[in-house]
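Record passed on underneath.
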Amino acid sequence: MSLMVDIEKKLGSFTLRSKFETDHGTMALLGASGCGKSVTLKCIAGIMTPDRGRIVLDGVTLFDSEKHIDLTPQQRQVGYLFQQYALFPNMTVAQNIQCGIRTGSRAEKQQRAAQQLRRFRLEGLEKKYPAQLSGGQQQRVALARILASEPKAILLDEPFSALDSFLKWNLELELSDLLSGFDGPILWVSHDLGECYRNCRTVCVIENGTSGAVTDMEALVHHPATQSAARLTGCRNFLSAQGCQGGVRLDGWGITLPLPAGDGPCTVAIPDGAVSLGAGPYRAQVFRTICDLNETAVLLRPAQDAAGPILRVSAPKTAAPAQGAAVAFDLLPEQCLCYR
C-alpha cells in the first residue's frame, strides 16, 4: 500500500511544492514551523485543495487537477489526527468513536465501537465527555475514531506540540504502541528531530515550501543533504569558508579542513561533537559561557580577534573554561559537512 503526493499550493506569497512517495510504515515530514508540513497533510486529507498535481493512495486517485478528480474527505479513507485531537465536545466517548464508522446498521456501528473501546482500553469511559478525559485518554479516543473508519493511511499533525515533556514522553510511547499494528502508510509531521527519529524509519524534509528526497532517518542524522536539514539535526555551527588546495579554509580561523569543496565560497557545518576542548593544534579565546541544565555552551573566537567568527562548543558544567580564557581545541573533519 503506497501514498504518492505531487502537488502545488499557493497561499499568498507562500508556495508549497510537495512531492514524495511512501509505502507502509511511518515517514516523517520534518521542517521548521511554517514550511508547509501541515498544509501538505490537509491537502492529502481533502481539507484543502491543491492548485495542481496528483495524490494517489493504494492505487486510488484522491486528487488530480488535470482529470478534475477531487474526492471528499469522507471518500478518501484517510485518518487525520489533529494537534488538539478535534473531538466533538458535546458527544460522549462512544458517540465520538461511532462518528468514525460510516457503514453498517446502528447495531453494527455500536458493536464496532465497542470493539474499539476494548482495543484502546476505554472501557468505563463510554459516557464521558472529552472535557472529562485526560490528555492520554483523549488521544486514545481520537485514534479509536480514526481506526474505526478503517483508513488506508494515517496523518499525524504534530500530536505532542502543546504538551509538557513528561506527558509528551508517555503519550509518545502509547501512540507508538497503538499504531504498531497498522499496515498502511503513516505520515508523522513534526519539527522535533528526536521525536521523528524514535518513531519514523524514513523522512522527507520540507524547506521553505519545497520537499526534498525521501531518505532513511539514519542518513539524515549523519549526512544531512542541505544546510536546512543540518540545522534540524541540531547543528549550530555554520562557518563561511573558501575552497582551497587541500580542502576548505575557514574564514577568520585560518584552519584548513580536508573536505571536498572545489573552488569558491562555501559553508561548513560543524556539529558540537566535532569539536573537543583542552588539546589540539588550534587556539581560541572564550568569548562567552552559557550554563544549561547538564552542560555549558562555550562560545569561542579566534585568538587575538575579538570580532572574529564564533564557534560553539559543549563542555561539562564542572570543566567549562572561564570567560576570557585562552584554550586549545581540535576539530574532527570527518564529522563536518561542506555546503555550497
User: Anything to note?
Assistant: The chain has eight helices and 21 strands. The chain has a mean pLDDT of 90.
